[in-house]
Design goal:
The structure is a single chain. By secondary structure, this protein is an all-alpha fold. The protein has two domains: 12-41; 45-76. 57% of the residues lie in helices and 0% in strands. The protein contains three helices and no strands. The chain is elongated. 0% of the residues are buried.
Length: 84
């Protein structure tokens, strides 16, 4: 899918105005936004990778609970406000 933004120079038009008109046309076409969204898009993580990360989080939580029970770590207040 190709999008062409073409601008022809009018009589008595300065190059600066021509560039400005071209920039506006490209911006209006949404081409720049689409390219930026592609550039910063992240891949979907595989099932195995997600499992490993989840296991890591579970292990870390268990470790923190153990440290809190032993008194080596203070318990944090819950973050955020939750409506009941």
């Amino acid at each position: 899918m190709a999008i062409n933004a073409e601008v022809t120079k009018n009589e008595n038009e300065t190059p600066v105005n021509l560039i400005r008109r071209f920039s506006k046309r490209v911006q209006g076409s949404g081409l720049i936004q689409r390219m930026r969204s592609r550039r910063y898009a992240t891949r979907i993580k595989s099932r195995e990778v997600r499992r490993k990360q989840t296991l890591k989080v579970i292990k870390r939580r268990e470790n923190v609970k153990e440290l809190i029970k032993l008194g080596k770590m203070e318990e944090r207040a819950p973050r955020g406000f939750r409506r009941k």
